[in-house]
Amino acid sequence: MPTISVFYGIVIQMFWNDHGPPHFHALYAEHEALIDLRELRVLRGSLPRRAMALVLEWAAEHRDELMEDWELCRRLQPPNPIPPLR
Predict the structure, then answer these.
(1) What residues contact 40, with CB distance under 8 A and at least 6 apart?
(2) Tens-place pLDDT, residues 34-54
(3) Domain extents in the chain
């Protein structure tokens, strides 16, 4: 699973040829959440509240890039890295 960004101990990844709806995986310590790209809501899993807030802030800033990466992964191409939250 390619890592597309890392910030504040949070790892953002996407699977190649993953199932819909468009989403990414956010990992923080032993926690994992799948985040819907269209609505920026949790599809499955959970993160601590502060980590989730950071992930959602980052995703809102990079939604277009995340959708581009989703399309690349669907075509079995490597996603582009996305800058971390600053």
Answers:
(1) 56, 59, 60, 63
(2) 999 999 999 999 999 999 999
(3) 3-74
